[in-house]
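In response to reviewer comment 3 from the previous cycle, which asked for concrete evidence that the modeling workflow produces usable outputs, we include below a single protein chain processed end to end. The sequence was submitted unchanged, and the resulting structure tokens are shown without manual editing.
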Amino acid sequence: MEEVILSLVKDKNLFSIIEKIFSNDRLSFEDGLKLFNSFDLPILGLLGNYAAEKKNGKLAYFNVNVHITPTNICIGTCKFCAFRKKKGEDGAYELTIEKILEKLRNYKEQNPGLTEVHIVGGLHPDWGYTEYIEIIRAVKENFPDIHIKAYTAEEIKYIAEKGRKSIEETIKDLIEVGLGSIPGGGGEIFKKEVREKICPDKISGEEYLKIHKTAHRFGLKSNATMLFGHIESYSDRVGHLLKLREAQDETGGFQTFIPLAFHPLNTKIPGATYTTGVDELKTIAVSRLLLDNFPHIKAYWIMLGEKVAQIALQFGADDIDGTVTEEDITQAAGAKAGEYMPKSRLVKLIKEAGKIPVERDTLYNVIKIYN
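The workflow returned the following structure tokens.
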């Protein structure tokens, strides 16, 4: 395989990196920059796919999941967010626990085999510690067979502050009422200078990592994200990825890395545009190559669109997310891929990409392999 790739490579800057990859040597910051700056996209795809198949063979995962967003009312000021509303603003909403349960009951009827509910939302100014805790408790009591993946690191800090509790106490309380894992949202870009421009009031990259590592020590698995395609540089992306790799070396608690393609509609980042297919595929490949200690890389079809997500399965991704059913946050920023994809379509996309579809649960336990 190495000889084949070396015979095809057009970018001479990749030769030393290719040798490292096939010698199982860890890539450096400089290697990451070279990969991002390379225009040799076919080689990046071959390398990403090689790394993915070395970990997971030809398996590509999906799950039957739903998203529920309890509120879009938020005290945040993130400039890349098109979702949040102020209390009383047109379009603002907050779901009661009864409404959340009703939604989930309907979704379960529509999605046979539902195994996961993903719950994230705004930082509601009037919701206290109890409100956030009771959402998880109610869902778990009414749907004990559904895994609850809920609350980003940002939300967990907010909940802790509302209850005047430590992060450790908050995570422990959430686990006791039914929290099963933590989503990766809120990673954005760790670089301080970028964060100050796009989300000045948000937790720092260091706090994000600390909260995830704390969750890992309590036995929770989590995902990690990076929002790319706004004002960050390739250097910022590589730095972000290497900080995640370092944290994973410490705890081993991250399951999946999800590069999130920026969507500009209704945001407040001047001059920002949609990401391109080339950049999206390149980011998938480089992520797979740098994050050698992450089990999975996800091509999130909601943000990439089904066509690019499908191709990404040949560039280093081994997961395409799931049925989703309801996704409000990216839709508000101009997502074009829709909010729901039936299981049959996910299976078709994966098979056409030359991979073996595997229906999984949140923790990557295999439910069914579609040969």
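Residues 327-337 have pLDDT under 50 and may be disordered. We consider this sufficient to address the reviewer's concern, and the full set will be provided in the supplementary archive.
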